[in-house]
Amino acid sequence: MTTVADIRDGWSAEQIRAAERPLLDAGEPLMRRAAAALAAVVREQLSEPGGRVVLLAGSGNNGGDGLFAAAELARDGVAVTIVPTGSRLHDAGLTAAVEAGAEFDRAAAAHPRDWVDSVGPDALLLDAMLGIGAPAAGLRGAAHDVASALLPRVTERDAQRLRVVAVDVPSGIGVDDGAAPDDGVLLPATITVTFGAMKAGLLRQPGASLAGEVRLIDLGLAPHLRGSPLVRVS
Q: Which of 10, 41, 105, 172 is the one with CA 20 to 30 A from 205?
C-alpha cells in the first residue's frame, strides 16, 4: 500500500477532503501539522533572521493553516502582520497568532491600494486567502481587492518584486482544473506549499505555471485516497 502521495498524481478537492475525513475523525491534528511545515518553509525564505511576513488570511481552514503558522513564526521573533480577507477568521488560529505577537491590520483590506505602497520588498507574503474549499477559479470581495492591489508588485521584474508563499494553492486558480479567473486577478506564487496530496490544478496549466515551486507536505492521506487521480504527469 502506498503510504506517501505521489507528486505526479493530481487529485480533486473532493477526493482530498474525503481522504482527510478518517484522519480527522481519529483526532489527527492535520491543521497543526500543516502549519508547522508551512512555518518551516517560510523560515527558509526569509532574507534575514526575524524578517517580516504579511499573512493574507481568509475564512476557513486555509486561513487557519496560515494563522497557526503565523503564531509559530511570531514566537520565533518574525514580525507578522495579519491582513484579514475573509468575513470571519479561524478563531483558535487568530487567537494563537495574536497572543504570539502578530499584528492584526484590518484597515489594510479596507484600503488595499493605499496599504500596498507601504509593503517593503523585504516582506514575504503568505497567501492563505482561498484553499480547496473555493468552488471555482476567481476571487471575491476583500480577497479580490487585495490581490488586485498586490498583483503589480508580485509580477514586477526588479528588486521591488514581492515573494509569495501560497498555502495549498495560489488564491484565484481553479483547484481541480488549474484555470485562471476571467478577470486575471489572482496571486501567482513563488512557492506553493500543498498538503496531503497534489491538487490537480497544480499540474494543469495555467495553474502549474502560477504555482512556482511546489512543496508537497505528507500528512498521511495516501492510504485514504480513493479512485483515480484527475491528472497524472509522467
A: 41
